[in-house]
Amino acid sequence: MSPVSLEKRSALLRDSEPPMSVMEFEAAIRAVGPERYHDLHPFHGLLHGGKLNKGQVQAWALNRYCYQSAVPRKDAALMSRVHDRELRREWMHRMLDHDGMPPDEPGGIERWLALTDGLGLDREYVISRRGALAATIFAVEAYVTFVREQPLTVAVASSLTELFAPKIHKERISGMLEGYDFIDDHVMSYFKRRLTQAPRDADFALKYVLENAKTRDEQDACVDAVRFKCNVLWVQQDALYNAYVAGNIPPGAFRPGV
């Protein structure tokens, strides 16, 4: 199966263009972040600026759990297609980073639940996803489907929003600790761990994509995959803003204080 660009240009135009150099290709990938990463979203500014109330922060943490819990499923879907044992070994630690290896390593999902626990949310309710926004669930499941169905190199490329993650984690740690008296170091442990995990993961995935996307069509599809992943993250912010800032909470979704 050949990679298919999500933002298609004409096949004739693509075929007429030579592959980008490695430097050009990497620059094209990195350029997506300043244009589309969700740190540009207004909801992000409110969250990190200490402008939300506790119920709005609860809504963010509850909905974001849906994404966190989908990450190891996404990685399992990718690994099920990998015949290269070395790649599987490398990718395996991503699942363990999130699912953990008890008793010594609780994992990222458990650290996220420490955050929702600290915010006063019922753990069973969070895990059930019953109160999550429909848009959140649609977005994260679209991501899992994308990784399962797209060509392997394109699927790997969709993880490259990790290139932009350390900046947002640093802002989140400092901004939320400073802005909210109901946030402490313990509940922010997820983000502190990702400061070292995300760069390691991004470095490996970037090297893999740069080495394995050979044609211009494949390269364009990989850049589009990073855009797609940014859209997955952005639409979650849109849904939170519309529901919990603009006040349009849909039926069945979490309602603060209820």
- The percentage of residues in β strands lies in under 5%
* CATH fold group: Heme Oxygenase, Chain A
Task: Give the H and E element order.
Answer: HHHHHHHHHHHH
Number of helices: 12
CATH superfamily: Heme oxygenase-like
Low-confidence stretches: 1-5
Q: What spatial form do the alpha-carbon principal axes imply?
A: globular
Q: What is the CATH level 1 assignment?
A: Mainly Alpha
Cα distance spanning the termini: 49 Å
Describe this structure in words.
The chain is mostly helical and 258 residues long. It has one domain: Heme Oxygenase, Chain A. Helices cover 69% and strands 0% of the residues. Helix 2 packs parallel to helix 12, helix 8 packs antiparallel against helix 12 and helix 10 packs antiparallel against helix 11. The termini are far apart.
